[in-house]
């Protein structure tokens, strides 16, 4: 149901982006549809340059799609109703639940309020700090718009930028390297974790989910930043171009954080080493947090997969983390989610290698980038034909609504094989 | 323990292949070691041409390594003891169990006898039939040796050939297209299935394992043959070179069957389409049967993964196939096996892309070929430096001893984190 609303938003967005008022040069409906899909699914893959192809009106439309897509349509609807003081019907709660994976109706209302507060505060602070960078460079009006656009895009992990080479121009700017990663980490950690942290301010009292999410994010960040730095240190196409060690570390920090789902870049992704690209593929498949703006299988899924594997080989009967046990039902869910994700990614690569003769790694990178709603590309996006755009568009959509939704959708369509024979019960 | 014996066999084999009597031209120890590893693990990747680089003595040594590696060292030792009428100690039974995943000691002795019978009969019939092809072409002596070598290599799914382009010369020979696939299917289905089939001759009475294995093999065969034919039909480097439709179908049939683990080829693997190569990667990871000469995660693992995923999305509490339920313990094992396999493959690709600047797909293909002990290559094997040979060698070894063995080995090495505090019990 939520998927249908996302679909409607994409179509409306594509219609708006097709209007002459939105574009500076004639744009095909295919371009507009792909851009709208990319914006609503907060992916950031683009077939045209956002900064030059669209007018201020078009860019604002994209930003609204990002915000609506990022928060989740129903969350947003409930937010508005809640702010206006209107009663929220049960049906809305049900949609919300679907979108945020929450179980308690009471907690939902609280969560929605937290979302609104966190989103507004973060995006405002982010934009205010980015003013320091963009106003001196572009003047007040353009600088203000750049600040708002990149703050919203970063918080929603959308990866859309108004520059054709993303944030490469500010690769060594300390403000950009602090504000953008700060925004995308908060947006990507998941609203349930933020809500949990705002209620229980000490580590001990956090839920197991929050603990796994926070420590998993920390481990993945250290790992990705370190490996990126090691592999790219002397690559003349990336870190090798910066003689200063602090600059190399800043760029590694930025790219290590942004790759899992945000999709900004400060180095040319087409120039990274094949090994780095492979690590990026893995990071993009993992993604960030549940109930966040991120795609991928999610950090918690990845951690539970690893814990379940270790527990099996250590012959433990029970799976536990941070003193709490993880049920077998959870493990089955994780297994199913991972399998259907691998299936979607493999099918996507399979279909796209049929229709495109590009470099295999670039195509794998493109498909996983779409699945993780990341938006990084090694140059394939611009070369996609209609078939390729449809494939990548569908994968972005699946990445946003979640592979679990796809799985349940497919399962519903398969009629049950066994139909029990009808039988009469004689009474009296 | 078994792993140590495999290792010893590889080292002895490398020593034998280093002897002047084994080679026609000076061969480095690195070449000999890689060849011995490839032979004992029945992979078939080769850095030198088996047919011209080794003397008849060297080729015979390779064939013995294939036979010992294929049957499993301990199975073979028990076989000899059993044939000689010597009592088989319990420790041997234990090794056997580890190698064949059987649980009943009684069934083991029966299984061992079945193995001996099946191996001898199959390899003799195979060699006899191949005489029809090789004797008219090479004369009696060379024809006889070619027949024996390729029969044993095929039955053990070793993929070693005495021709530099594998069996391409006989791509359209109906005898080769029947005998070689026949041998490798029987060798790859798993001895437990063969034993089950010889005891219970009707489908209904077969075990669930046999039913899953047989139907899974049938489905994978139909799928791989059909997709190969469709994707390669007009590729001038493969099927496109054969105008005859029956020839195209013969080659598709052969390649569809040989890719999962045998590793022979009748088309140039370097010329297949990227999409076909991706399908081959998946087939090589899946492999063939447990308790067989095959590598990979095994067909049954793959089927249980799919069944578990479908069951989750259909919200079934129980997992079942052919009227029998599959326990959660089995699902956990399958999950752990798949995860450690993905880990080994990813780590292998990661390490090999650091040390080699080759085409990414070719390197992925090489690593999965080693992991599935398949032996197909897109030309990377010959270009491997020492680091690359070590990586591929280790992966072949893991592929043969099984990723589960690796998992338990690693788990044993990790000291338990929680050590319960010592406590005294006061009695009386
Ligand atoms: K993104
Ligand atoms: K093989």
What does this structure look like?
The structure is a homodimer of 428-residue chains. Chain A is built from 18 helices and 2 strands. The first copy, chain A, is an all-alpha fold and 428 residues long. The first copy, chain A, has one domain (2-411). Chain A has a two-stranded antiparallel sheet with strand order 1-2. The longest helix of chain A has 34 residues, at 105-138. The radius of gyration of chain A is 22 Å and the shape is globular. The termini of chain A are far apart. The model of chain A is unreliable at 86-95 and 416-428 (pLDDT under 50). Chains A and B meet through helix 13, helix 14, helix 15, helix 16 and helix 18 of A and helix 13, helix 14, helix 15, helix 16 and helix 18 of B. Bound molecules: potassium ion (K) (2 copies). One potassium ion (K) binds next to loops of chain B. The site of one potassium ion has 12 residues of chain A, from loops.
